[in-house]
Amino acid sequence: MTSRPSVLVLGEALIDIVEREGGDVEFVGGSPANVAVGIARQDIATHLLTRLGRDDRGRRIADQVTASGALIHDASWTDAATSIARARLRADGSAAYEFDIVWALDAEAAAEAAEAASVVHSGSIALFLQPGGEVALSTLERAKRAGTIVTVDPNVRPALVGSDPRPVAERAFAAATLVKLSDEDAEALYPGASAARVLETIAALGPRVVVMTRGGEGALALGPSGVVDVAPLVVEVADTIGAGDAFMASLITSVVDDADLLGGDVAALQRALRRAAVTAGITVSRPGANPPTRAEVDAAV
Questions:
Q1: Claim: this prediction has a pTM higher than 0.85
Q2: pLDDT of amino acid 19
């Protein structure tokens, strides 16, 4: 009997300081950390290799991540301050961010952790900001060569990725088995290109499945058997913080749960998209990045 697959998430964990009427509110955040929490809440063994300060904010992040069931790698801890992102909510509930972040990653720890995982995920600031970006990218590439499933979400942050994020993003895409990006990411990477063209361009780099989320229009995916789309779950939106991360976490869960997803089965891809849409919908219905449990998703699918 083989053991259940485990997922390694490489990337930043930070505190989101959300500006609200009546005062700021702090939430645990960072796209990869949110993804790790989301996967663990689906009852999948999850490890997060990140960068945390030994301060109150770092301990708050660790408490929330471990409460979800995920484990934080020992190499994640540092004597520097925990990173923060200040989020200002727009009228539609989406957030504009300002960052105070330093990103570094222990290369030896990342390599060892990736060797022990069945799935390796990274994305967001972790891919673009140095010196940790090169470590994250190299780890994904080694994992691909070893035959490990690799998932990527570029989650492009214009304030941090430089004037031309495409070379870094495409290097990550080339290492990936599955890519998820938003329509905003697509516009940042391939300005003016249609959704179909973006999916085809990324798929040509090597991923077996490429998914684009489109907010209120749902999501579109290109797999080995063609294009599949899904409508969003209609809910009253509290805010959109963590929606894409919840969607990504659900896709990774489906990769672990359903071997047919990466094999070209259209029905499996449709199931994965529907489940991810429900997961994201539940997340946006409550404040902050607070993804649902497996039981909550099962009840709503």
A1: yes
A2: 77
